[in-house]
From TrEMBL:
InterPro entries: DEAD/DEAH_box_helicase_dom, DEAD/DEAH_RhlB, DEAD_box_RNA_helicase, Helicase_ATP-bd, Helicase_C-like, P-loop_NTPase, RNA-helicase_DEAD-box_CS, RNA_helicase_DEAD_Q_motif. Belongs to the DEAD box helicase family. This is DEAD/DEAH box helicase. Its EC number is 3.6.4.-.
Amino acid sequence: MSFADFSFDRRINAGIKSCGYETPTPIQHKTIPLILQGHDVMGLAQTGTGKTAAFALPILQKLLSDHSSQRGPRVLVLAPTRELAIQINDSFESLAGHADIRTNVVIGGVGMGPQIKAFDSSQVIVACPGRLVRLLAKGSVNLKTVDTLVLDEADRMLDMGFMPDIKRIIAKLPAKRQNLLFSATMPNSILAFAKRILVNPQMVRINATSPVSSVKHLFYKTQSSQKSLLLDDILSRSEHQSMLIFTRTKHKAKSLSRQLANSGHDTTSLQGNMSQGEREKALTGFREGRYSIMVATDIVARGIDCDRITHVINYDMPNTVETYTHRIGRTGRAGRSGNAISLVTQDEIPQLRAIERIMDVSIEQNSICGFEAPENSRGKLTENAVDPLRKADGRRRRRKPRRAMASAA
Ligand code: AMP
């Protein structure tokens, strides 16, 4: 199948060409015809599969073939994070080619004035639920003209507690509309929600739980106290073009990023304590290759589309299989190869095995001499364990461990 089979408007075909897409990805192949036919769609797909274009292309086609001169947005896309909203908006703009379709983002962290001003002259609004609810409550905008609703990363929006806001937004939409819901996972809560919102939805599944197959999964067993030295070692061995490192806390993302920068790496961080301007600066620098390493927390890294990411490192293990799937989805995108490396303490081994089982992937163990966690460790050095990096006088050895038993990816 080729894009020509969809008979898109020539301006959209020009947009597809300028994005460099040659053939539709599986989710595009399955979803585009359904959306063009007007069905409600429930898509079970991770980011990295081409799902943004899977909904953006048919939506743009519908906008171009309908010559209504009505003012006000026709399409509302809800996304969990500001970064993802900006990214979706960018995709709409690029895919629209030279067509005169106006799109706008409605997100927190920036002034409301320009968003309110641009609202009615935009056909597509990509919003984070929180900010949109505030604008609706102030009476600054209304959604009476919307006939297509997209809920992207619905599972994440649910996890982030956006459900009450989403319900408030949906209550303001016309009842007659097309609904498209995309989610990387389909827990019962999402199924129940979808049942209420979607009308006779067509279900599309792509790689329900398994990550993109171009990703190689590795783990190092270590102790919490040795993670940063181990990371140093992995960095010195890996040929990474672009690396995304996940930490559990904002504080750790910031301090680890600073530490790596002090050791001479081009590093930035992305975490929720940063202003919107700082986040965008960090993200652009990472995307454009000014920084080869980004240390981030889950909350902001979700959905980030950066083609160049060759390595994702779980400095701290994620708490759920879904989060592992999302993190790893940042690499190996659009068929490129990627590496997923987890630093795992003894306590986290059962969690790692559960991820393997549920995702049906094999996560190979790698080891670097001097960094293995003793079998009886509980994530910390035990009293009797020998710390190979500690010198006889008790001070830490700064040199690299002597020998690698297996090379890092
Ligand atoms: P998404 O799943 O929407 O985050 O898209 C993942 C990546 O795939 C993005 O970098 C898209 O630009 C890219 N992409 C989307 N559709 C195609 C396609 N048909 N061919 C090649 N790359 C694509």
